[in-house]
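User: Could you check the structure of this?
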Amino acid sequence: MDEDLSIINNNTRNEKIKNFLVNNKYKLIFGIILLFIFMISFYSYDNYKVKQKKKISDNFNTAILDYKNNGDIKNVEKLIQIVEKKDPTYSSLSLYFIIDNKLLTDRQEINRLFDILINDTSTEVEIINLIIYKKALFNADHIQEHELLKILNPIINAKSVWQSHALYLIGEYFYSKEQKEKAKEFFVKIMGLENSNTEIKLEAEKRLKRDLSE
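Assistant: Sure, the predicted structure tokens are below.
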């Protein structure tokens, strides 16, 4: 009897599965087609990204080699285009090369490129914070106090590994302007940070003891 019930249950279950497949065959076929299209699209997009990355890498290396071999400043246009590609690796390297080799004199244009890296490039938070710090460092000798603070605020207000660097830069800025009380305020903040860079903390301590101890 139990065996007969088991056979009936199996037959019933198989019949339900069969009916489900018959009644939903178009939906199932459509689902399979969609899955296939998704897999093809994913592979194609991933392959496209790899090719684009290689192309950007090749353009960067060519521009650098041409400049080193020929001193060809025309390659600055290629480097600017790479920055505008918003690549997490080569866009920042291109801008740093432009700055280090003084290939652009237009500060407004350089700041525009910095903003592309900061606002439009998808990368890690701490790398963005480093770029913000480099932007502040680039502009420190040419901007007013409130402008420098505006640039560095995202780092100062976050528990970033670059926080002590930002505070030290502002402290040195005020010290160079002979605003010693303001400078001291930022050096003291560095001493109180839990995640201060060891070398930065040591330099801040030296500055406080040697020049701001009164």
